[in-house]
Amino acid sequence: MTEPQPTPPGPVPYREAYARLSRIAAELESGEADLDRVLPLLEEAREAYAQCRERIEAVRGVLAGDWADSDPEDESDAD
């Protein structure tokens, strides 16, 4: 079995965090993780989930902000 991966400093790309969640889920679902490994896996999964959620919320924020308020027809009239 592999040890939990340390979290790199700075923002983690969404795909990387999602891949970590997928790997952890597969290991837990397989039943191969011994009891001593479950807690570190769950802690790693919590971190990866938080990173994914942060990235999704950032995108939602952008989409709900300026882009949602602009009308493409208004932009063409501004020329």
Automatic annotation (TrEMBL):
- Under which EC number(s) is this enzyme classified? 3.1.11.6
Question: What NCBIfam families does the entry give?
Answer: xseB, xseB_Acin_var
> Which family does the entry's similarity section mention?
Belongs to the XseB family.
Its protein name is Exodeoxyribonuclease VII small subunit
Enumerate the UniProt keywords alphabetically: Cytoplasm, Exonuclease, Hydrolase, Nuclease
In the UniProt record, does the keyword Nuclease occur?
yes
Give one GO term, molecular function aspect. exodeoxyribonuclease VII activity
Keyword Nuclease, does the record have it? yes
The lineage's top-level taxon is Bacteria
